[in-house]
Structures are given as C-alpha cells and as structure tokens.
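User: For a reading group we're discussing how well predicted structures match intuition. Take Adenylyl-sulfate kinase. Before you show the prediction, I'll give you the sequence so everyone sees exactly what went in.
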Amino acid sequence: MFLYGSRVTFYSFELNLQTNGKVPLMTEQKATNVTWHEHKVSLAEREKIKGHKGAVLWFTGLSACGKSTIANEVDYLLNQRGIHTIVLDGDNIRMGLNKNLGFSAEDRAENIRRIGEVAKLFATSGTIVGTAFISPYKADRDKVRAILAPGEYVEIYVNASLETCEKRDPKGLYKKARAGELKNFTGIDDPYEAPEKPELVLDSDNKGIAELAQEVVAYLEKNGYLKA
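Assistant: Thanks. Here is the predicted 3D structure of Adenylyl-sulfate kinase, as structure tokens, for the group to look at:
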C-alpha cells in the first residue's frame, strides 16, 4: 500500500563571495508572495492512466560500479512492457541543468538536491524515474528521500569494490585520480558513504548487467510498483 503525501520545500540561491560567486549556496526561501498550486489532476488519476505507480529508483555507488548501465537496462525492460520511465544520468545532467557545478562537497550536495527535485516532478506524474548518480553522501540521499512520499524512493546500492571499479575504469578517471590529476574523486581522496538500509543491494562484483536489471524489475513487481 502506498501513501502519497505532499511535502513542499522552497529554496533560493546566494553567491559565495569567497569563491568568486561560482558556488551556489542554498538558503530558505525568503519571498512571501509565492504560493504552492495543487494540480487538478491527482497522482492517483495519472497512475490510473499509466497503469502503474510513480517512483524514483535511486542507483548509487562508486564510479564504474555499473549504475548507468543497469539503470538503462531497467529502463529498456520496463519500456518494453509499456511502463512510463525515464533515466536521469549523472554525466548527462552535468552537461545541462547542472553544468555550473563542480565536485566540491557543496556542489555535490546541490547537484543531488536539484536532481531530487526533478525526479520528484517525474514521480508525481506517475513516471518511474531511474537516477544514476554516485551521490556519495548519506545526508544528501536522505534529503531526497525526505521530499518524496513514503514508498516513492527506492534506494538501490550498486555494490562493487573499489578494486573492481578501478579495473573497469572505462573513462580512465581512477588512473587520473591516482596520478593527482583529479581532485575530490570519490573512493580515492573523497569518501563514499555506503547506504545503511537500502531497499535493494546489487552485487556488481559477481553478477552481470542483465541479471542485476532483472533483480530490480523483480523488486518492483514484488512491491506493487508495476500496477496502479
């Protein structure tokens, strides 16, 4: 059973003068002349048309653990079944919406905050959203969970060891980080806080993409996401 509520948080941005105005700082909304507008079409009505629940599948893990590849395979499998889906990929988002953000702790937090809000918009349209982001900090992931209704956030930990990820290293990022050419790289000189109680853990060390994607679909089926 899913209970969907409405949680609204407003934000504004200020420029950090200590960094030449390049880092957006999040503060509480100061304007008093804004009003949240409820939609005439309810989430339940949107889900009825689509024939399934809206949800955010939050894939998290080290770089090269397989997040994007698995998310895309799940997207494909669900699409073949007529499920309304979309994938928000870390690299793709940084080429557009978040192109002004770097990889400092502050920028990472803002990166995840923005994605969480975008994912929420899709989920409240009855769409199943796959998000593939390292999202290394537990606090940032917890904030995304908090803005979604109970049952909407599905944290999926793509568990692959640092050794495995370094061996894969399709972009050569670990090599650059080890050489000191990349700073604040997760797993090397920046921490990754593994989920403590994720909804699903995928063993990316020992299983292939197809098998892991099927595990995600099986979880969605078992927990009632694929029917309205």
